[in-house]
């Protein structure tokens, strides 16, 4: 993680009611970043429900229920059926969404970076720390814009 991203994320800690909305807005950005990697229809449905929540159709406190549901789905994810292995990014993407919906922006950011790097370059790319730099920069820019 870059020092700038670390600094921005530290401003959202500890988790409070006052910083709930920015944590969840950043979380939605994280979900949308990895949404194309998701394979499980129920996780995809959770992302849509999260999007609806953030558009004001539900109370923000409903994120707890969504987070618990997404976490259970991520924990039960059996991996990808993809033969090349790159599709296993779906597991990390599911965990990114679960963390995002649970209001845990640091964990969401970490899983987003891993899912995106894994999805683009497979396991080998995740062994190179520089592979994550463009994702960390994207996450920094997104968090700054919020």
What does this 3D model show about the protein?
The protein has 146 residues and is mostly helical. It has one domain (17-145). Helices cover 69% and strands 0% of the residues. It is built from seven helices and no strands. It has helices at residues 3-10, 20-34, 41-57, 63-75, 89-101, 105-126, 133-145. The radius of gyration is 14 Å and the shape is globular. The two termini are 19 Å apart. The mean pLDDT is 87.
Task: Set down the secondary structure blueprint.
Layout lengths: L2 H8 L9 H15 L6 H17 L5 H13 L13 H13 L3 H22 L6 H13 L1
Helix pairs in contact: 1-7, 2-3, 2-5, 2-6, 3-4, 4-5, 5-6
What percentage of the residues does DSSP assign to strands (E)? under 5%
The total count of helices amounts to: 7
The assigned structural class equals mainly alpha
Largest sheet: none
Helix amount, in percent?
A: 55-70%
Q: What's the Cα radius of gyration?
A: 14 Å
Number of strands: 0
**Approximate shape:** globular
pLDDT average, as an integer? 87
Catalogue the unreliable spans: none
What distance separates the N and C termini? 19 Å
Summary keywords:
146 residues, 0% strand, single chain, mainly alpha
Summarize the structure.
The protein has 146 residues and is mainly α. The chain is 69% helix and 0% strand.
